Amino acid sequence: MDIENVVFVQQFRTPSSEIWLAETGRKKDSEPFAQLDIHYTPSMAMVTVVYLNPPKSQDEVHRLLDLIDDELLSMGDLEKGNVQFRVIYGGTNKSAVLKREAPAGNTDPLGGLLG
Known about the structure:
Layout: E1 6-14, E2 17-24, E3 32-40, E4 45-51, H1 58-71, E5 83-89, E6 92-93
Parallel strand pairs: 4-5
Antiparallel strand pairs: 1-2, 2-3, 3-4, 5-6
């Protein structure tokens, strides 16, 4: 996935939720690599990212989550801690709350999500 060319295509919107597809570029044969389900509460945004193909690296996941935070979330903010991400891929259902800093003694903020 080339993070500089990721395009988000909105599929559905309600007053409290949105569904987006993440694609690499806007080529004719471009296929989505992930679906994003965003649900809003009065105080936070909860985002489920479903990878259609397993991500190549943990860094790829972090870069996509940062891009989602920057481009799609108007009220949520990783810096403020009012965004929760859940990542699903490869037939597994592993989830974690993404934070800027890992808990003491843990260098993986996604809690072994890709390991």
